[in-house]
Amino acid sequence: MPAPVMNIADAQYTDLAERSRSRGSAMPQERFGGRIAALAPALGARRLGFNVTAVAPGKSAFPFHSHRLNEEMFFVIEGTGQLRFGSATYPLRAGDVIACPSGGPEVAHQIVNTGATELKVLAVSTMLHPEVCHYPDSGKFAVLDGMGPDGFRHVGRQQDNLDYWQGE
């Protein structure tokens, strides 16, 4: 069992663009960028996911999205930014706590670094699977049954829906 304590300064960060490439995807670096440190696995957590995400100035770490099953909480450690939440926006600064319940477009969320320095947030999530995420800006959805290397992951658009009996 790993030690249950870790300082975020000692965490192992991965570049988000590199993480995307390792999953067979190309992150549009003009809008997205930063680093992420997965703390939960390193600390032995089983039912909660948590990481530190460091968002580069002028960028977001992830697209505007909602979760149908999982709930997320963010704590702003340092920096400034903006939260897109449903149809509203909120300014962010160190010390802010953000609640992102599960649901549809009304709770879609995205953190944007509007400052000149890195925006660092602690992200905490329930780790329930299978999960369905929706991306209102692009009209996409994702189905995930786990985040491991052997997990099922499919990203598509609703208009590409197949008939249930097609090919049977």
Textual characterization of the structure:
The protein is mainly beta and 168 residues long. The protein has one domain (8-129): Sandwich (Jelly Rolls), CATH 2.60.120.10. It has 2 helices and 13 strands. The strands form 3 sheets. It has a 6-stranded antiparallel sheet with strand order 1-2-3-10-5-8. A 4-stranded antiparallel sheet has the order 4-11-12-13, with no helix packed on it. The radius of gyration is 16 Å and the shape is globular. The model has no long low-confidence stretch (mean pLDDT 93).
Topology:
Elements: E1 14-15, H1 16-22, E2 34-38, H2 39-43, E3 48-55, E4 66-67, E5 72-78, E6 80-85, E7 88-93, E8 97-100, E9 109-112, E10 119-126, E11 131-135, E12 140-144, E13 153-157
Antiparallel strand pairs: 1-2, 2-3, 3-10, 4-11, 5-8, 5-10, 6-7, 6-9, 11-12, 12-13
Question: What are the main properties of this structure?
Answer:
168 residues; mainly beta; Jelly Rolls; six-stranded antiparallel β-sheet; globular
The count of β-strands is 13
Arithmetic mean of pLDDT: 93
> What is the domain tally?
1
Q: Please summarize the sheet with the most strands.
A: 6 strands, antiparallel
Order of helices and strands: EHEHEEEEEEEEEEE
Q: Structural class of the secondary structure composition? A: mainly beta
Number of helices: 2
